[in-house]
Predict the structure.
Amino acid sequence: MLNNTQIRYCLDEMGKLFPEAHCELNHSNPFELVVAVVLSAQCTDALVNKVTKNLFQKYKKPEDFIAVPLSELENDIRSIGLYRNKAKNIQKLSQIILEKYNGMVPNDRDLLTELPGVGRKTANVVVSVAYGVPAIAVDTHVERVSKRLGICRWKDSVLEVEKTLMRRIPEDEWSITHHRMIFFGRYHCKAQSPKCEVCPLLLLCREGKKRMKAAGKK
């Protein structure tokens, strides 16, 4: 496991690699962000952005999503995995946001997780990106990077990863660290072909050193 000095080094190096890391889901308001993140489950941001380009022209507010038959919304997001379930959740959460929150997306994580299709990760993304509330959303990239580097344990659950990162990273850096770890995992420390040979964190990375040794490289 990395100590605090080593974690600081990792954060700084990721910051140098990806100083402009940000949420890559296109949106223009908190409601669009909620819809986009719900759509992104088990799906790439690139595909979601391709779909929402037209979707957000047709549906501009919660009322629009519940004004059409479910089958029509399903057809509009058909190219996205789990589209039937996602369409159902989007209509349900739109109804709740209208009836319970006067059409405004709540800025509280616990309230957000009560919405259909919105889990802890989704809620953390929304409060962080839309409202500037410090949060770390643990997606597959954040989890992989945290465990490969040894910031967290291999056996840690997603919630344990989140809690460990929150404990070991300054609160005012939670949100930017979340984005930088995603970029690091998406474009550098990839699942199948991580760029270990050119990684500035190789000397600290237990997984990287193991991979290099297996490949016969020092």
